[in-house]
Amino acid sequence: MFLENTVNHEEQFGWIEVICGSMFSGKTEELIRRLKRAKFAKQNVEIFKPAIDTRYDEEMVVSHDSNEIRSTPVPSASNIRILADGCDVVGIDEAQFFDDEIVTVCNDLANRGVRVIVAGLDMDFKGNPFGPMPNLMATAEYVTKVHAVCTRTGNLAQFSYRKAINDDLVFLGENEEYEPLSRAAYYKAMLKERVKKLDVQDPEELKSKPKEENA
What we know:
By secondary structure, the protein is an alpha/beta fold. The protein contains six helices and twelve strands.
């Protein structure tokens, strides 16, 4: 559960909030909402995203609902530490694309009194924990897991199923390449994929093999 009224001005430490979930679950939407509230309160806010993410805009964090906020693209997590100097609140989108240094950077900022809000995919398309997200979730004070709606069952979805034929771990895409699935739908989809990849031989070929080997 996320609580905003936890500021003790005698304690000069910040904290880390993590917003995680599958694709199309509203992670970026929630990140933008929190950052805009901080801006409305006249806090010094800076937003960062990995430079490789140029799907919507090179210098904006944009949600699937076209809600947006200006951001600074950075090639690595180490840049955030320098550029966030003097900030009250730091937002980081698509955190799964950063290396493990992002965990140290977020903790350093929080220890300096900065409120750090991080959004990212908690699992990759194979259903495995994604990059630095597990460690970020472990060290965060507040973790919010948001869900999409499964496109096949209508239930809550926590998996990002990749429809595109591409095995690269980092593969930027939208609804043409991905769809959110529930556990049951994801399991069935992955099982169907594995069956397709099986090398099934014709029974007649299998019968003829021993004869050919003995000849």
